[in-house]
């Protein structure tokens, strides 16, 4: 087997990875989660050696499994450090080490970097690393490094329903065509292996070619006069040529078709591209149930920024067309021949997304061979899709732009409306609140909720219990009777009730009976009159709640009973209400 098909070696079980900082103190070895290493040579930075060594120590402290789990995590900060050291080298007196760094130098760098979102990201990353050095944790340098940097607002917005439907339709059409093609050729292969085809016939030769493809992933080629590989004649004639759609695409997905499958996984489950690239083959539960419909357990890994991983398991059942599990069934069907060959060549690879690449294995649209965060090719098969593949797929589908970033936002914020591989806080902050479509949809919902809350408040303002007659055990107050003066919701520091008499109608201990109706009806009229002479803000602050409770009481008593209550108002009632409104009664 060729070197590109071998699995990268990992440290033995129970052994830790080597220290990130090399013995010379200038080379940092970053082992990603798969155990593959990427080296960073700090001797190449354009600053003095002592400063190179200090930065290498800070960088190496982060190249650990609990901090940076992927090479992507370390690559960007490395580029930021190169920018920073270039800036330092251009100073009149470049610092030789971190203890010579000044707050003025940091402030000038901020003046340049703070102008753009990318510059602010560079500044934030470098300052976070520099703050780990004990020499920079006090003084003007520490103040400059601790500068608050506002987060950049995301400009990514969700798709409209029509746009997202177009994307899903295009992806479904492309993937379904590939699945039908593979299934048709699989049936042809089954017939050949069962001996149902006439030996030597064109169909028989096609079956033989399919068998070779299913076992090796390749067809036999010869080197032509020009040095270019040429498919063996009998297979070329039987298959109708040697174009990829006539040869290996009979049993394997192309990269573009795998991208269509990834778009469908995004739309169905809300996975982002990195989760899709690492998705392992889902396993059906041992007991699919009496109906024979498989339920798949899908382990999901979401690597956290700053280290660690987030794990979850999704269970989906295939119970027919358009069910959540049907897409998994179809994905397994479309990739089964590729996965079988990969398992023979590199046992344990077990990745869901697998596709054939290039002509005879040449891959011109995949990840760079130096990018060790991604699983290496196994023979002619690849497992990783890049953002640019989304652009290529969209272009072929007649659409604009890669669907992965906007599609992820649409699936999570608009369709699923719940966290997917992230926390509730991230869901609200990064997906829901910044999205204009969600904001627009929320306006009538918020308005309706506010109206409903106001209506409920208006309908339930009277808390006091209404009774027909007085209970002789209750204590009379200015506006109601109290059934438990010492244990009310508004206790006084010295004991008893500390609430105003106007709050009695908002107390569960209060009892209102017919003898209270006249003075309360008069109080309602008095508060209405007060409203006409006071500034609105003051009236709202001081009297609106009491007025609302009385209005609710009026509604409960009814128009006739309210008029009879007003006719029964006595001079004692008027005097009592006057004292209540002036505050003299409570005093």
Question: How do the strands and helices of this protein lay out in sequence?
Answer:
Blueprint (H helix, E strand, L loop, with lengths): L26 E5 L5 E5 L7 H14 L8 H19 L13 H11 L3 H14 L8 H7 L15 H33 L8 H15 L4 E3 L5 E3 L1 H7 L15 H15 L3 H6 L4 E2 L10 E9 L5 E9 L8 H20 L9 E2 L24 E2 L4 H10 L7 H13 L7 H9 L3 H24 L5 E2 L8 E2 L4 E2 L27 E3 L4 H17 L2 H7 L1 H14 L1 H9 L3 H12 L5
Parallel strand pairs: 10-13
Antiparallel strand pairs: 1-2, 3-4, 5-6, 6-7, 8-9, 11-12, 12-13
Structural account:
The structure is a single chain. The protein is of the alpha+beta class and about 575 residues long. It is built from 20 helices and 13 strands. Helix 6 (about 160-195) crosses helix 9 (about 255-270). The longest helix has about 35 residues, at about 160-195. The chain starts with about 25 loop residues before the first strand and ends in a 5-residue tail after the last helix.
The chain-level mean pLDDT equals 81
- Widest β-sheet, arrangement of strands: 10-13-12-11
Strand content: 5-15%
Looking at the chains present, what oligomeric state does this protein adopt? single chain
Main structural class: alpha+beta
Mind describing the biggest β-sheet?
Answer: 4 strands, mixed
Rg, nearest Å = 37 Å
Shape by Cα distribution = flat
Overall number of strands? 13
What structural keywords apply?
single chain; 587 residues; alpha+beta; 3-stranded antiparallel sheet; 47% helix; 8% strand
